[in-house]
Known about the structure:
The chain is of the alpha+beta class. It has one domain. Helix content is 60%, strand content 13%. It has a two-stranded antiparallel sheet. It starts with a helix and ends with a helix. 16% of the residues are buried.
Amino acid sequence: MWEQIWEPENLREAFSKAAKGKWARSSTSYFAAALDANLRQMREAGLVGALPSSSFTQFTIHDPKERTIHAAAFPERVVHHAVMNHCEPFFDQ
């Protein structure tokens, strides 16, 4: 299953899911500008277990109550979607 997570088709689908509704953000357009290279680098790193990691962005929302949100960087969101593309069917059972 690990190798399937890093298949180019899965990473491209994961990118599409991560980018949905987020095209106005600079991190999304920056990643998309070199999409093939970024996905290739992500695949190579993932296959050897070197997953991308960075600090989370923290912000507070007040809807309807105050909550602190910790948002992952865009490349990490792509990885999250890539993993979930393969794990979700097991959770849905």
